[in-house]
Amino acid sequence: MTTHTEAEIASQPSCWQRAVENIPADALPQPGERVAVVGCGTSWFIAMAYATLREQAGLGETDAFAASEAPLGRSYDRVLALTRSGTTTEVLDLLGRVDARTTAITADPNTPVMTLADQVIVLDYADERSVVQTRFATTQLALLRASLGEDLTRAIADASEAVAAPLAAELVEAEQFSFLGAGWSVGLAQEAALKMREASRSWTEAYPAMEYRHGPISIAGPPAASPGCSAPRPRACASRSRPPAARSSRPRSTRWPS
What we know:
By secondary structure, this protein is an alpha/beta fold. The chain has nine helices and eight strands. The strands form two sheets. Strands 2-1-3-4-5 form a five-stranded parallel β-sheet, sandwiched between helices. It has a three-stranded mixed β-sheet with strand order 7-6-8, covered by helices on one side. The longest helix has 16 residues. The radius of gyration is 19 Å and the shape is globular.
C-alpha cells in the first residue's frame, strides 16, 4: 500500500511543472531589490538555496535567515517568508515586526499568514498530508528558480526518473549519511540530511563539500562515497560506520554509491 509520503514524493515532478507554468512574477522579489528570505526548518534551507541562486544571477543582494534569527535592524526592500503551514510562529512574529514589503509563500490559504504579508503566493496543489515536508518544499524552490529565468525542463525529467528508480541496497544498509553541496546546493544538502533524520531517524550530517575534509571526514567508514564534490547538486556519502574505538587509523577506501 502506498503511503501519503510516497505519493507526495512521486508527485513532485508534476507539481514542479505546474509551478514553472504559473509564476506570479509581480509578487516575487524584483531585480535590484535587497531581499531577506526567511523560514524555519526545511523552509530555511530552501531560503538558503534561493538566496545563493538569486545573487549568482546578479539580481540583487539576498540573505537567508532562520526566522527566529533574522536581524530586524537591517534594511531590506522586501522580506520573502516561506511557510508551508502558514502558521509558523517565528515567521508570523517576524512579519508583524518588519517595515519592508513582504511576500509569503504558503500551501494553506486559510491561515494567519494571509493577512500578515502584503502579498501571498498559495501553492495549495503542493500541500501535504505528511508531517515530513517533501513536495511543497521542492515545488516552491522550482517556482523560485523559474522566476530567476532558469529552465527546469531537464530537472523535471531527471526527477521523474529518480522517483521511479529502485533504491540501491547499499543505501538501505548504510548507517550514516553525509550530504555535501556547493554553492546553492549547500542548502539542499542540509535539507536532504534533515529529511533523512525526520523520515527514518537516520544518522545524517551535511556540509559544504570542501568543508567535509576539515574534520567531518573522520566519521566515514567503509563502504563510503568519495567526499570530493564540486558539482552544483548535493552528493550523498553513505557508510556503515563503526564506533570510534573500533575504527582503523588507516585511510578508508571510498566510492560513490551506484
